[in-house]
């Protein structure tokens, strides 16, 4: 007894399966985690090390090099890059893609050990390296907080209070604040008074160092008790600090006698942030990865609403990005798309097979979808952009199995068989071919789903969901579909009307006979069309991942290296004024000195730099972005010619960097810059689509260096450090201690008053030997200016300069890359230097290479299954001859719509191949079965193909129409068009090309068999 018959004979088990899928699906939908994008592990850590006073070159040689050498010993490390600036080293470490997220904690532990051991041998003055492995945290609830009229201290307390309150919300893992006002206590000695009383700046620094320190004062014991003694409280106000006593040469002075003490913002804050033109700070909330972000987001919203009663008047939390609302909208859209797809499928089936078959297949389809949700919840597969898209993609494929079984049962019952006989007969013939074809369809996605890199991790849920849903569709097709057919289908009389006698079937049979007769002409035509379409496919624009459908875009602004953060902020204010006049702009946030907190998994911020400005601009819809970008680009370039002004769309998928990138590596920075400039010139001369070419080393900066007069200075007892301290006192100031305000530590900076009229040459320097001041020009031979690289990038321990460029919005990176590649690669570089492509070309190539490494195994499994199904070779040859022709409809569809061939379109092409093979297997299996009954080859082919006409057409039509909801999704539109166009053509291939190929391959053996029978 087959499974199909058992499902009818023992309906209680089948009904339990139905209720399990339905109720489990409802539970799964309610309990599934929800995200915007699928979680993929950012396998990077950042090591930050300070080396005050060192040049960028010294930092690279004395800090980055020894740390990188130690890190390189780890076999898990794939890539090491570093950015070296004056006084600071920033090393990024990337782990090989073959290591999954569960292995990272142990890798980071080993990394910390390597860094800690290497740090022992770093030069004196280097601070302990800090390892940050939380580089990939996503703060999906992202706000700009404005508090006009409040002091910097009040704003800081507001920010820390909000952070503390939101961290208590269930499901919140971290809250990050950025752009809070940075304050300091400034102690500005009056030089004339200080010199007159012989009060060197170092004496002030030493007095401040312990003014507010925390130290143990011991304890006393009395009886059986121990009592702790606290140290005296320190200076806890600006006035207390100004009243500190300073002892110099037996004389005691109060600090206010020799210096002005005041509190204020630091001169060079790390980040200046404005929202809609108002000063603001950002607040980012991160939720647990294993929880529903929608629920976490609503809990945060509720807590913020409760806090409004305590939030001071005038303070506003302005949403920049609310991931939970985006995800919630996507989930609701999914329900709408699901309902539309089911309605489309049921409508098409009702039109061609009648309402009974439509009910049976539609119910099976619905159970498959909700059952998939049940298994997604069990296997912790979240509902996000990829998994929801996979359900829509699978929608059309899911009906194939049910249609074949329902069609077979309905026809058999119309011919007089009972439902049990019809179920057993139909399932007996088709369940194994359908299973094999289903596994082949799943394996078409295995190459990308099992890819070990970030792209494979990003798209894994596509493979998982399609695998679950297709296997479930097969299981339900041989259990639930027969039972529902038993209830709904009517039994006819034996020898009733021919089920395939309709006009459509007769027309197809006549067409197929003509094609078989003119088989060589048909084959020549198919080959010719395929060649033309392959040529046309080469004209399709190539793109890695498509632009996002989130109505956001970015501004990147870069002033010459060395510009201040205030200069950057002032220039961004010009753009803000322009944006205020645009109705399509709903909000904007500007950042001077760095980028935003990572509020999306696919967002990658620029590294901190005072001369860098960034803006996030939100519009009413994505349709308004192209025109707005064009206008903004034009205005920004005209209004701010002193800087580099660019805009960029938010892009789906993992990635980062510029669309066009070329790395130049080698030992000499001078030669690197020369080659980089040559590359830029060649790029611009070769293609007009290369926009804003630049290097990541940026412009060299002017550096002032005092020439230390060794003999004179040492005779006077003045060291190089004394000269450096004096110059630092005259400029940025010397940190003399901290002023504790609750948990906040405010630096106390001793510096010369900015209003002082003295120059660097006029600065008095304290002589320890003479216990007196002398002018700094007496111990130096002048101040000399020199040009230095202040941004030195290294990659795998080699100095590497990267040339980056943008492209026009109507072009793809692949198009522009194709224009410049040959000319750039023709550039001659000296021995020891190398050119390496990066950007989208490298990301795409890595993803393709990863896919190609998995694809042979997938193809091998698919071929083996097809061979094992038939226990022969010729039938699989017939099926696989169709696969190269699947590109025909794809080329026509993408060329007709003007869409690029993206990475998701590649997935569509792979899935299309799986669908085509699946249809081919069912058709060829039916031809074999009819031939086994003794029919002549030609008639067997026609009869079998006519019997499979309706399932093939309906499967193709329902799949194509099921893609309609995805045409409005920017991420999946190219995949949808690929499948729709390809499947429309593939249906023709299945119904015409497959029988023609079958006839050609089997005609000779048929003739030999007939001749042998005649001879006998």
From TrEMBL:
<feature type="transmembrane region" description="Helical">
    <location>
        <begin position="12"/>
        <end position="30"/>
    </location>
</feature>
<dbReference type="InterPro" id="IPR027463">
    <property type="entry name" value="AcrB_DN_DC_subdom"/>
</dbReference>
<feature type="transmembrane region" description="Helical">
    <location>
        <begin position="520"/>
        <end position="540"/>
    </location>
</feature>
<feature type="transmembrane region" description="Helical">
    <location>
        <begin position="387"/>
        <end position="411"/>
    </location>
</feature>
<keyword id="KW-1133">Transmembrane helix</keyword>
<feature type="transmembrane region" description="Helical">
    <location>
        <begin position="334"/>
        <end position="353"/>
    </location>
</feature>
<dbReference type="GO" id="GO:0042910">
    <property type="term" value="F:xenobiotic transmembrane transporter activity"/>
</dbReference>
<feature type="transmembrane region" description="Helical">
    <location>
        <begin position="853"/>
        <end position="870"/>
    </location>
</feature>
<keyword id="KW-0812">Transmembrane</keyword>
<dbReference type="GO" id="GO:0005886">
    <property type="term" value="C:plasma membrane"/>
</dbReference>
<feature type="transmembrane region" description="Helical">
    <location>
        <begin position="432"/>
        <end position="452"/>
    </location>
</feature>
<feature type="transmembrane region" description="Helical">
    <location>
        <begin position="458"/>
        <end position="484"/>
    </location>
</feature>
<keyword id="KW-0472">Membrane</keyword>
<feature type="transmembrane region" description="Helical">
    <location>
        <begin position="970"/>
        <end position="1001"/>
    </location>
</feature>
<protein>
    <submittedName>
        <fullName>Transporter, AcrB/AcrD/AcrF family protein</fullName>
    </submittedName>
</protein>
<dbReference type="InterPro" id="IPR001036">
    <property type="entry name" value="Acrflvin-R"/>
</dbReference>
<dbReference type="Pfam" id="PF00873">
    <property type="entry name" value="ACR_tran"/>
</dbReference>
<feature type="transmembrane region" description="Helical">
    <location>
        <begin position="360"/>
        <end position="381"/>
    </location>
</feature>
<feature type="transmembrane region" description="Helical">
    <location>
        <begin position="945"/>
        <end position="964"/>
    </location>
</feature>
